[in-house]
Amino acid sequence: MNYDCLIVDDEPDLASGVCEYFNLFGVSAHCVLNADDALSFLRENTVSLILLDINLGQGSGFELCKTLRETLDIPILFISARTSSEDMLLALNIGGDDYIPKPFTLSVLLAKVKAVLKRYGAQKTESRLRVDTATERIYLDGTALTLTNMEYRLLKYLLDNKGRVVGKEELFENVWSDNFVGDGTLNVHIRRLRGKIEKDPNEPLLIKTVWGVGYVYDEAGV
Length: 222
What we know:
alpha/beta
């Protein structure tokens, strides 16, 4: 899966709070608490930017940054309560792109992250649909959609895989967690979603059918 930002910080409340705030304002984010989990996450997912604390309990953000720089060429922003000039210089010299001292305000941090993502050309085109994972609601052009639980899960999965053709069997397994769901059930849910987000459900521009394979959420033609 693709994310805008990975937050690596050993303070659970801070990490989850920043992650939730970012997701709320359109920057897709995930958080982990240590270096091992960060490396494990990056083996399975891609990110456009990393927020990295220096103190990671059993590890060091400096060491993790050097490891990441062996394979990744994306912005790494250090966040730390350590504010000595030595720490700042070391962070920048080993591959960090910026150094943000704690405490910080979430709005300022978000603005910095958005600016860096835009500068590096890494931020995804803003979607007409926005997912609020905290409330499990999806907004279309700023208006909350009325969705059943399964419609929410299906649409969120398509959004998480925007631009990629998602096969029917993959949807059965990851949305319904049941390989015995039939095409008819899937077709009904797709038809209902199109009725809620498409200007003309009979000529869908957002949720497109790839015949014999599955579906793709794509805003390229809108």
